[in-house]
Each structure stands twice: as C-alpha cells, then as structure tokens.
C-alpha cells in the first residue's frame, strides 16, 4: 500500500517525467531528419503517411511530396521517400547493405507462423529461398508453362467471342476487370498447382476466391496504414480472426485446397511421378509443405492481381488512343492475319511477341505512364548511415531510416522521357536516336519489376502473359469503352493499383481477314 500511496502522491511528477521523455524522443526524432523537407506534420507524427495509405491514393500523395520537396522528401518521423532511380538501384543492389523494413513487409504474411519470399526479413534466408525457387519461376523446371498460359488465353478469347461480342443489333458490355482477373487466377493456379480454379469456364468466381483476394488487398492496406498487423499477428488473435482451412469459401478455402493439392503431389513424387512444374521444382529444391503452401498462395494475390492490373492499364490506353490501336493491329496482322485464335495451338508464341517492336513499345509506354505497381517497398538505411549523390549533390541519410520509392514521379520525369513525358506516345521507345537516353529509359522501365536481389520472381511469367493477352485481344477484336465518362475505379493497395468496373465493348474486326 505504501508504494501505491507514494505513486498516487507523486502522480503529477511521474506524469510530467513520462511526458518529458515522450517529448524529448519526439524532438530527437524530428531533428534527426530535419534536413529533409516534407509535409508539416511528417516530422512529428505518422498522420500524413497514414492518411496517404488509407486514402488509396498513396502513389499520388508520394508524387506530390517528391515534386514539392525534392528527390528525397520526408513523409514520417523516420520515413523518407525518393524518386531517384539511382538511389532505388543502390538500395536494391545484390550486395547492398540496405535491408527490408518490417512495417511494410510483415503485413503481407497470410500465416503468422510462416514467412514467404516477400515477408521474410532475414536477408540470408530471403536470398536462400529465392535461389531455391528460381528454377520453378523461370520455366527451367516447368516445361509446360507456356502451354498452360496458352490454354487459358484461348479460353479468354473464346469467352469474349461467344458471350460478349456486340453487334449493331445488340450491345453486350463486359466488366473487363472481372474477366481478366478470372484469367490471371486460372493461369497462376494452373502454373502453381497444375490445376486451374476454372473461373473462365464457369464464368463465375469459383469458391469466392477472386472476391477474397480483393478483401485481402483491402485488409493488407488497412493493416499497413494503421499498424494493426502487430495485433492481428498475435497467435491467439490470428486463431480467431485469420483465415482458416475449415472455411467453406474465400481465402481459407483457397488454403485448404492448396494443402490438399500439395499433399497429393508429395505422394505422387514419392511414387516417382515425373511431372515437371512449379510444385515439383519446389519439392526438389527442399521447400517444406508449409513453405510451398505459403509461396503458392502468395502467388494467387501478387501474381494474379499485378498482371491483371498491367493488362487493364495497357488496354485502357489502347482504347483511348485509336491511332495507336490501329497501328498495333497493323503490326499484328503482318505476323498473324485472320482472327481464328480460339484454339490453343493458334495462340501467338512468346518468342513471336517479343519480336514485335511496336507491341513491346505499347506495353512499355502504358506501364510507364500509368505504372500498375507503384510499390513503396521501403528499405532500411544501414547502421552508420549512407551518403548518396543525387543530381550532383552529396546527401547523408542517418542509419535506421526507412526510404520508400515514388515510382509515379520518375516515370513522368521530363529529363528521362522528354518534354511530353506526361503524354502516351509509344513511338518514344522506337524513334529516339540517342542510345544513351534510350538505355536510361529502359533502365527506369525495368524498375517496374524491381532490381537486384529484390527483382520480381514472376517477371518472366507476367511478361509472357501480358504480351500474349494484348496480342490476341487486339488481333481478334475492336474494343472500346462502354462508359467513357467513367472508365474505371482505381485504388492503390500497398502500392498495387487495383481496378474495378471497366466496362468494355468487344466487336468483330471491321476488316476481318478470313
């Protein structure tokens, strides 16, 4: 009782000491990064940054900050953001001393007890995991990868032709964002597990999986912005609010189906099954059942949604720039005249797609001007700090600071892409005679998929999907927006742009070659 009484008698002194310590910490944090300008509240609190993330427009908020305050701006007491490609490459380099930051990567875990390649914080474990997974992603141990993509692209074309082709007598609007998500989910499930979800054939969201990935993106963004993941990742809390393999639908059902498939495949492999695909590659390279479950379910969100976003962005810019659409159709027709491509064997090969210069320019330009992944992907400055040179100026960044990327800013940089950087013009990738400038443009474009030890492992698969889908859509249809006044709804979820409600009209080619 004496202790309680003493504390009560000195309560105001104790409160003053606690408040004083708190204020000293705030002042210290403020002055630690005081040489970097930013929104007025960013030096004292996380409010501006929380608002930017929860607004679903973080890419635009980061862009505003970099344009107003310089290539490195302050967005929080311990957070900076940069638009410098040089600094981004430096942070991601193979031997870079920079490391991942927990507040961004930890919320991506969908199981609190198992990390995947994106959430793993231990750099040595992360590197080892990437090395063991690389052959499964590259196609070296997945010889049927392209054929699997072709099957579902053919189903996609057939679905549009059979159910959503508009005529003079009847208009059939199609929610393209919904159907392209069905496509990318079917492809990634077939590649990962050898068994597609079947969204395209059923023309519906099987087991609510597409809906659950959308909910997952919203929940991830909310946890990211509020820091709620720290509570939700507690085992006792996760047990009651997290997805369960006993769930009848949604992400829990996805986990249950995945585990059944993985266990079945383990038994087949034990019986000398010679199948060569992603799961087989993961088994051969020593991944455990739980690791494979975590990695392959990550692909359902990261792989499917990012590719769907890229395809949606490219198609919007094609539909709103008729000159480019017609020019691309002309290039495609020189390679594959005619529109009969509903069979798998008729789908264009990846090798052919990569040889079409204008198609590649269209893809690059669309993803430049409206990057589907504006990923903040913050990195932690090594202890002791780092001195970087940006625009000829030497800048010291204190150790322990988090640095985010502003992809949106350097994609519209006039110094890199020319005076009309804010305009959609694919020809910029083909007409510039300055080899140095073109090389720099391509270098910045490659940042879409990350660089160095953090480069996207699914890059090869994603670029193959994107090229084939755009080729076959433009080859087979004349596409236009059903609602030009409201082309789509868009939100940034942890740096990934997610699109909904892009209603499209598909009609037969006006000058169809039979």
UniProtKB/TrEMBL annotation:
<dbReference type="Pfam" id="PF00067">
    <property type="entry name" value="p450"/>
</dbReference>
<dbReference type="InterPro" id="IPR002401">
    <property type="entry name" value="Cyt_P450_E_grp-I"/>
</dbReference>
<dbReference type="InterPro" id="IPR036396">
    <property type="entry name" value="Cyt_P450_sf"/>
</dbReference>
<keyword id="KW-0349">Heme</keyword>
<protein>
    <recommendedName>
        <fullName>Cytochrome P450</fullName>
    </recommendedName>
</protein>
<dbReference type="GO" id="GO:0016705">
    <property type="term" value="F:oxidoreductase activity, acting on paired donors, with incorporation or reduction of molecular oxygen"/>
</dbReference>
<dbReference type="InterPro" id="IPR050121">
    <property type="entry name" value="Cytochrome_P450_monoxygenase"/>
</dbReference>
<dbReference type="GO" id="GO:0020037">
    <property type="term" value="F:heme binding"/>
</dbReference>
<dbReference type="GO" id="GO:0004497">
    <property type="term" value="F:monooxygenase activity"/>
</dbReference>
<keyword id="KW-0479">Metal-binding</keyword>
<keyword id="KW-0408">Iron</keyword>
<dbReference type="GO" id="GO:0005506">
    <property type="term" value="F:iron ion binding"/>
</dbReference>
<dbReference type="InterPro" id="IPR001128">
    <property type="entry name" value="Cyt_P450"/>
</dbReference>
<feature type="binding site" description="axial binding residue">
    <location>
        <position position="456"/>
    </location>
    <ligand>
        <name>heme</name>
    </ligand>
</feature>
